[in-house]
């Protein structure tokens, strides 16, 4: 007995959802559910295709109370730019949580992942950042821009500093953030002064060696590190993690495998179980205590975010997309 | 830059591929590649949704030399029949192996899985069964019928015996196999005499306690056990596995987790590493030695089969399906 499946393209999805305050609320509800304990979230399925400089990650999560669950496939093929193609692609599939039937296929080329990833940064800022006059952005890619926008939703900053390895790209990124937020934005040539002047820093790079050291930390700073999502990546020095007043994971089990926690534990630091962002949202773990603390949030990306955004999109589809009876 | 993605429904896929000798060759090539050692096949991602009596399995594999790789999602929701829906569903996605871009989405509701699963049974018969006069089929579902057809392609038997817990369903299954193969088929009420009269037996049940014991084995018998694909399932007694002259896995690492090998090792049997079906196809491991041996093949289902059938389908699409520019 065929059933109807909705197919949406990236262009159609861009018309339906964007990064806004409502999106932060949607993803926040997912994190809060994750803290509830009844979420089923298997470890990430990861496949390396070394021959073609590629990797594929698959994430999923069942969240009680959501009538669907998403499965998200994220291929990253790093020779693609040579062919004029983006490195990151992929799609998201929404299934009924009660029958397992496919409800929708979102051919988003990673757009929904970009949005839900940025939203997590906004939520981290909402719950962990102090008052922010100056924001620091490390990295100059899609997530640098989106994280700056998401942070602005939670902490509407006056000024934004951007650092990247390529000064021209940093300047362009700063200009784009200025246009999106209205903040005073400029590129800077060194990381240490960027951190020194900022109350909120987001790291968005694929770095494999730490960019932020313990010496750069100062009272009244929050850092969200969202670049590391593989065991070979790191943006924050282990000693910096240990020196913070509060270190928070999106999911402890994932951060220990592919986030900043991995590197810290490898050198014997951070042996205790840190709190998760969802627990702070739910009020079952303590967040920032006053404006002078140093806090760090480690985001590796969770299947719960995918399920949260996919069910949200499904509820707003209207008549968009192509219906296929399969 | 949007790219074209082909969407195919189950009905369209049924017109393109069926279970035939060519399909056995296609899946056999996948198994042979698996023996070559350069295949990348991550462990199955599995998620249980106990609240809705459901489970979701995700399989994938990269096979060098294939220009695409498949990712297959198989939800099984066992209360669905109460709603008039099939328990098993799902879809398969074909990606470019060089860029990671989505090439095609096969909304097959599990049809391609059914075909590639049956084909593996046919290949096991082709390489491991002796001469077959009588075939025995245990179980009365979709795979009982398909496995009987696949075995007939490799060993065109004269007679087929079918056992199931429900005699009426067994009779219907026997009638359907007779119609598909032309063999003399009948339902039988006990397993032991079925095995005693058969040279090839296929078990296709979700049994959680062994159906075939060591006492039932006899010279000149091959058994393909394809029902167990979860850690709670088993169809063959551990002592039977130990008593066979040759025990073969589709993939040792999977059979040890979710196949018959798991139960045998749990009671201390089968400590050595058995050969894989692909090694026997490739000639790097020894198969059946003469007509009197007892052989058993344990099939849990591999991502390589999915990649093999998906790339085969993609090559035969012609203009079928819906093209979406995403």
End-to-end distance of chain A:
8 Å
| Proper CATH architecture of the largest domain in chain A | 3-Layer(aba) Sandwich
Could you tell me the number of beta strands of chain A? 14
User: What characterizes the major β-sheet of chain A?
Assistant: 7 strands, mixed
Assembly level: homodimer
Estimated structural class of chain A: alpha/beta
What labels would you give this structure?
homodimer; alpha/beta; ornithine cyclodeaminase, domain 1; seven-stranded mixed sheet; 14 strands; 35% helix
What does this protein structure show overall?
Two copies of one chain form a homodimer. Chain A has 326 residues and is an alpha/beta fold. Chain A has two domains: 4-112 and 304-325, ornithine cyclodeaminase, domain 1; 122-301, NAD(P)-binding Rossmann-like Domain (Rossmann fold). Chain A contains eleven helices and 14 strands. In chain A, the strands form two sheets. In chain A, strands 2-3-4-5-6-1-14 form a seven-stranded mixed β-sheet. A seven-stranded parallel β-sheet of chain A has the order 9-8-7-10-11-13-12, sandwiched between helices. In chain A, strand 2 (45-49) and strand 3 (54-61) form a beta hairpin. In chain A, helix 2 (21-36) packs across helix 3 and helix 8 (252-258) packs across helix 9. The model of chain A has no long low-confidence stretch (mean pLDDT 96). At the A-B interface, strand 1, strand 2, strand 3, strand 4 and strand 5 of A face strand 1, strand 2, strand 3, strand 4 and strand 5 of B.
What's the short version?
The structure is a homodimer of 326-residue chains. The first copy, chain A, has eleven helices and 14 strands.
């Amino acid at each position: 007995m065929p059933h109807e499946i909705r197919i949406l393209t990236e262009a159609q999805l861009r018309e339906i959802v964007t990064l806004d305050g409502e999106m932060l609320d949607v993803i926040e509800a997912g994190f809060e559910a994750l803290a509830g304990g009844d979420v089923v979230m298997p470890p990430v399925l990861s496949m390396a295709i070394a021959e073609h400089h590629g990797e594929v990650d698959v994430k999923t999560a069942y969240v009680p109370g959501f009538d669907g669950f998403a499965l998200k496939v994220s291929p990253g093929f790093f020779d693609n730019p040579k062919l004029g193609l983006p490195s990151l692609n992929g799609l998201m599939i929404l299934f009924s949580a009660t029958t397992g039937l496919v409800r929708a296929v979102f051919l988003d080329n990673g757009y929904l992942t970009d949005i839900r990833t940025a939203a997590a940064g906004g939520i981290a800022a909402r719950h962990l950042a102090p008052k922010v006059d100056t924001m620091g952005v490390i990295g100059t890619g899609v997530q640098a821009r989106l994280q700056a926008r998401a942070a602005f939703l939670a902490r509407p900053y006056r000024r934004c500093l951007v650092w990247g390895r390529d000064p021209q790209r940093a300047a362009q990124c700063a200009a784009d953030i200025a246009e999106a937020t209205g903040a005073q934005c400029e590129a800077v040539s060194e990381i240490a002064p960027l951190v020194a002047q900022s109350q909120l820093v987001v790291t968005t790079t694929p770095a494999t060696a730490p960019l932020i050291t313990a010496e750069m930390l100062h009272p009244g700073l929050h850092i969200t590190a969202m670049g590391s999502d593989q065991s070979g990546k790191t943006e924050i020095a282990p000693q910096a993690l240990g020196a913070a007043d509060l270190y928070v994971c999106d999911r402890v089990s994932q951060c220990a495998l592919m986030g900043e926690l991995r590197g810290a534990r490898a050198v014997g630091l951070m042996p205790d179980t840190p709190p998760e962002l969802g627990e702070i949202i739910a009020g079952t773990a303590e967040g920032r205590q006053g404006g002078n603390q140093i806090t760090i949030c480690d985001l590796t990306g969770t299947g719960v975010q995918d399920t949260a955004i996919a069910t949200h999109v499904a509820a707003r589809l209207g008549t968009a997309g192509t219906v296929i009876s399969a």
